[in-house]
Amino acid sequence: MIEIIQNIYKLVLGLCVGSFLNVVIFRLPQEISIINPRSFCPNCKNKIIFRENIPIISWILLKGRCSFCGTSINIRYPLIEILTGILFLVFSESSPELYNFNQNLFIENIFSWLFLSILLVISFIDIDYFWVPQSLINFGLLSGFFNLCLIGIYNNNNILSIYLFEGLIASIVSYLFFEIIRISAKVIYKRDALGKGDSKLVSMISIWLGPLGIILSLGISYVIAAVLIIILLKLKKIKKGQMIPFAPFLSIGGLIIWYFGNQPLLRFIYSF
Question: What's the whole-number mean pLDDT along residues 125-142?
Answer without folding.
Answer: 95
